[in-house]
């Protein structure tokens, strides 16, 4: 029997930053005095503290600064003081919220005006990609929005979910904000990633005035999202009757269907919105429309949790009660399936057919019996269903107990899955035991499996006497004992073991035993039953396909009671799997400290290494389990060599994954302050992945000892940070004295790395710190070359801003004799080409192929050669003058005709002689031209 599937209730979007409860500075008295002064709004105290050199860029555990606090509290004067004292106006907390976000959240328009005056970034995004305008729109900060919008290029910028500021204003019902955004050019039909418009959200939330404004500005009434929901569907989902009336008065499509075939009246019944159902019927909604599964609104009303009143309305309005869906189920079947007793009575009283069967041959009585709805069974029997006990009557009437359904299941299977002991006894008495043991013709899930999996111990006790093989396997190779152990049914395990079930049988997928299954899910009683009844004590260390023991899987999942039981039974704590990992390795990786404590108490080896040479210390550090790391460090003396097979220490792993608490703890180990092993240092790991807190800890603790270290390719941590666009890390490294012009093994500087990877913010920062733009790598490429080679126009323009018109860098040629103008032209970088030429880059420089920048724009050498021929023909000559281009002679004869010597077509244009630029007139007076 199959349950009907009904589409789920539509969910609202999570609102953006909210004012109340959003700033979790819980213990204000523990904060620095500067932060407290910001919250108290005491500008004089702030001045005094700033005079005392209080840290203006202090960050709490969530990286919020005093400027965040002042902006949130709307203290414009304090914001001004902090910024003038060096506070970073665009600093971000760990949710990437800037002070401008905070000010918009609390509708602090004075603070917003102050922040904007100090160049606050109006396009800054938090982790949900929401800009300050999104936050202002969500919180009805109209004045703040008025300050921000003129500074934006686009008011339709979307967040991570694809929602614009208009979406958020509409969702929250902010009429004035909606009006402002529309006046400033917000797109009325902008849609989010689910194709939902602002009208969808306003309708869903019932903001009738916002809906009215959107419609007045041209919103499409019957617009649809990705699942084809209209605004009317959305309003009906949440029962927003005012919006429903407005939309219906405007003649929207009352029977519009979504991608599931559901009309607005379907979704109203699904969500129990009886008032909406009434309104839709008044406007002519179809009572008997069917969706893709053939279900009517009455099917939904019969099944849904709150659909009772909807069902009453539909029945009274004359809805057809006996419509069968594609699976053959009627609304009465739905009441039986979901146990809706009162609704079943209503349907029967109005003429529902009691004995109608679905495509599986099940009547409503069958379904009610299957799901144990006793009141429904009584009701159905009282209204004409068979008054006899179904099973007993059928058996006495000669029905075959071993007959199978379409899936091969017999009545014994169904009785077993529901634990019906009495029915099982009757069925087994009427069934030959040979038929139960005929595994080739029956489904792999035997009645034994079904009873054991569902914990029906009484039914299982009846079944075990009728099966010859208690270790029969289902399709994944699991025995009934394995399933009982996996689900934690200790009584079932005991019954099976006492009847001779084998504890050591392995499944076919992972080769696990029932002992593994019990340990995996933490079923201590099952595990105890299995261990106490085992013939061999070695079962405590049995292994699966990957040589994992029950102790390992128990530790991996944090089941400390199972761990203690296994240890008390003599489990080997030093056993390793195929990767060489012990149970302690798994505890370190999963962070289950109680399990690890138990292992350590029983003598687990802290310094054991897996196949990669990693100890539990490595795994705890890599996974960020600081408590576990501390316990491991305290339990024994770490070895002098803490490097894995690739030369990485636990400190490397903690820095690579940004676990600053682990970094701080590991810095106490003297072994990790000496840089042996892999030349890619922990500082490289931290800076290369943008973990600024880890970077700061390393610099504070190790300083000069680590700042200049180079990896195997000669790259410093500054190279790594520049490559990944990690501005905060780059800033710290520069402040700590990292060589800004350090070259790696290929001669590349951090500026080149940033330029070649398109990291504009880092490029700008490095240029601001006077990175040398004239340096060239081993291929004679400058940073400007790299920006052009990788087509990063913004980076190239930033570098060009730093160059004077007389700078030789403009015409530096690399190993291929290409200048930046050659490369920029080849890649179609129009702004870069314009800037290069305006600054004096030579348009006549020739590369190794003899091409000028103009010829480099050609898509291939053949086109370049053709272009050279055409350009040569276009150039004016006096009689008798010959211009040579490689082996191509273009000669003007006295008669004015031109002769082409094309003896070598392959070299056309490749050695075009460098000529001077024409000035003023068509013909040049330069003697070299003639």
From TrEMBL:
The keyword Repeat applies. InterPro entries: Ankyrin_rpt, Ankyrin_rpt-contain_sf. This is Serine/threonine-protein phosphatase 6 regulatory ankyrin repeat subunit A-like. ANK repeats lie at residues 62-94, 95-127, 128-160, 161-193, 194-226, 227-259, 260-292, 293-326, 327-359, 360-386, 407-439, 443-475, 476-508, 510-542, 546-578, 579-611, 612-637, 646-668, 713-745, 746-778, 816-848. Gene3D superfamilies: Ankyrin repeat-containing domain. Transmembrane segments: none annotated. Residues 1-21, 882-930 are annotated as: Disordered. It comes from the Eukaryota. Pfam families: Ank, Ank_2, Ank_4. Keywords: ANK repeat, Repeat. It comes from Lingula anatina (Brachiopod).
